[in-house]
Design a protein that fits this description.
A three-stranded antiparallel β-sheet has the order 1-2-3, with helices on one face. The chain is an alpha+beta fold and 135 residues long. The chain contains five helices and three strands, in the order H-H-H-H-H-E-E-E.
Length: 135
């Protein structure tokens, strides 16, 4: 004999399905923006002291979005940029850029490359372009 489903059981099932979809949204956003859902939850505001002396291998990557979105601005002087970020990373990569900063392993599920902040200045010494690059 087939048992009929009660209205209460249907409501519970619908509520559980809706909750599961809502709970999935942050992970989906993380995957789309960062390539790794858990990176979405590890973003940090830019902190100059942590940037200059990172305690872990991901400290700069966790701050880079805030730095790019709210701190670095075209037109900043080279002195202001190097005060904010400290001395650039010594590397032969990205020779077409004026300043290069190592950020860490790329933010993706299968990250094998590194991410770098690169900056270029105009002839008057003002920040004209910056980007996050991968090698």
């Amino acid at each position: 004999m087939r048992r009929s489903t009660s209205v209460r059981e249907l409501r519970v099932a619908v509520a559980a399905a809706a909750l599961a979809q809502v709970a999935y949204v942050p992970f989906a956003v993380g995957e789309l923006r960062y390539g790794n859902a858990f990176e979405f939850f590890q973003r940090r505001p830019f902190d100059r002291e942590t940037w200059l002396r990172p305690a872990g291998p991901h400290d700069r990557l966790r701050q880079i979005d805030d730095l790019v979105d709210h701190r670095l601005r075209a037109g900043m002087s080279r002195a202001d940029v190097t005060w904010l970020l400290g001395p650039p990373t010594r590397t032969t990569r990205f020779s077409g850029w004026d300043l290069v900063y190592y950020l860490g392993l790329e933010r993706s599920p299968f990250g094998v490359d590194s991410e770098w902040l690169v900056a270029r200045f105009d002839p008057s010494g003002r920040l004209s372009e910056f980007a996050i690059a991968r090698d």
